[in-house]
C-alpha cells in the first residue's frame, strides 16, 4: 500500500447494502459502526458475538448463518472481511471481480479500501489513516479529537450557526482547569465573549485576536452595566450572526442570572445553549476540605446569598449553610442567624478566592466569625460555610491544635 495510490474519501452508506463476513470482535465493531451510519448490513457467518446477536434480534442486521459463498456480495457497495482465515482472500477476490470496495481485516496491503479511525466533535468529523497501522491511527485520532474537545484547536466557522447563537457558559469557581470541556470548545468557536468579573479570565489569552471581548463584571454594590443592558448586548451580537459566549463565574443558574439571559435570548428568537459550570457553592467548600454533606455529620445543605433574610433556614449544625457574597454584611448575617436559633458555637468558615493559588480559609464559630474575618482582612470574592462539616477541614484541625 503506497501513499501515492490512495484517495481519501467519505462514503455515504446510508440505505446501501454492505456485507460483513465474520462474526467476531472486528466484525462486531465494524457492523455497529455501519448500522449507526445507516447502512443496510448483511452479516455472513456461522456464529456471531453476543453484541451482534442483539443487533440481529432487533432487526438492525440481516444474518446469513453459514460460511461465505459466491454470490453473497450481490447488490453490495462495500464489503468487510473479518474471519482471520483464508475465507478473507476468497471474499477479496470476489469483490475485486465485482468491482466492490473491500475492507480486509488484518491485511491492509491486499485491501482496496481502508477504514480510518473516526471521531465526531460537534459537526466536525476527524478521520485518520495510520498507513495500515490501526493502533497508530487510533492514537492520532484520539489526540486530535482531544485537542478539539478541549478547545486547543480552532473550530470557528461561518456555517455552524449562520443566524447567530448564544452559549451561557459556567466558568467554574476560578481555576481555568475547572471549566468544562464543552465550555472550552465553545470558547474556541466564539466571535464574541461577554465576561463576568469572577469568570476565569486567564482563558481569554487563548482567544483569536479578532474575538470581541466585552467585560460586564459587577463589583459588590456596583453594577456598571445593568442586567437588561447585558441581555440586550447578547441579543444584538447574536442577531449580527455571531457566536456569542457569555462566560460567567461558577454556574450561570446558581445566583448567576443565567435564567434571565436565557429568557431574553429565547424571546428574541436566538438559539441558546446552557453549559453548566462547577458552582462555587460546593467546589470552593470542597477545595477548603469542607464537604457540604458528610455521613454522620450533615445530610443536607442550603445555598443562599448574604444579601437575603436567612432567618428561615434550618437552625442546626447538621444542616450546612453556604452563603455566596455578603462579606460586608457578615456581622449582621451572623447575628440574625443566632437570633433565629442557630447555636453561637456552630463551626463556621469563610473561604476567599476559592480554587485559586491565593485561596485563604478562616475558621471560627458563628459568634466569632465576623470578628475573625475583619482581623484577617477578608474580602470578596468569598463564600461562607456554617455547620458541623467545617470541623472536617484542615483549617479547623489547625485551629484546634493551636487551642483556638
From TrEMBL:
Enzyme Commission code(s) on record: 2.1.1.107
InterPro entries noted in UniProt: 4pyrrol_Mease (IPR000878), 4pyrrol_Methylase_sf (IPR035996), 4pyrrole_Mease_sub1 (IPR014777), 4pyrrole_Mease_sub2 (IPR014776), CobA/CysG_C (IPR006366), NAD(P)-bd_dom_sf (IPR036291), Siro_Cobalamin_biosynth (IPR050161), Sirohaem_synth (IPR012409)
Keywords attached to this entry: Cobalamin biosynthesis, Lyase, Methyltransferase, Multifunctional enzyme, NAD, Oxidoreductase, Porphyrin biosynthesis, S-adenosyl-L-methionine, Transferase
Pfam families hit by this protein: NAD_binding_7, TP_methylase
Metabolic or biological pathway, per its Swiss-Prot or TrEMBL entry: Porphyrin-containing compound metabolism; siroheme biosynthesis; sirohydrochlorin from precorrin-2: step 1/1
Catalytically driven reaction(s): precorrin-2 + NAD(+) = sirohydrochlorin + NADH + 2 H(+)
Catalytic residues in the record: 196, 218
Keyword NAD: yes
GO molecular function per UniProt: NAD binding; precorrin-2 dehydrogenase activity; sirohydrochlorin ferrochelatase activity; uroporphyrin-III C-methyltransferase activity
Record domain Tetrapyrrole methylase: where: 166-369
Keyword Lyase: yes
NCBIfam families: cobA_cysG_Cterm (TIGR01469), cysG_Nterm (TIGR01470), PRK06136.1 (NF004790)
Protein name: Uroporphyrinogen-III C-methyltransferase
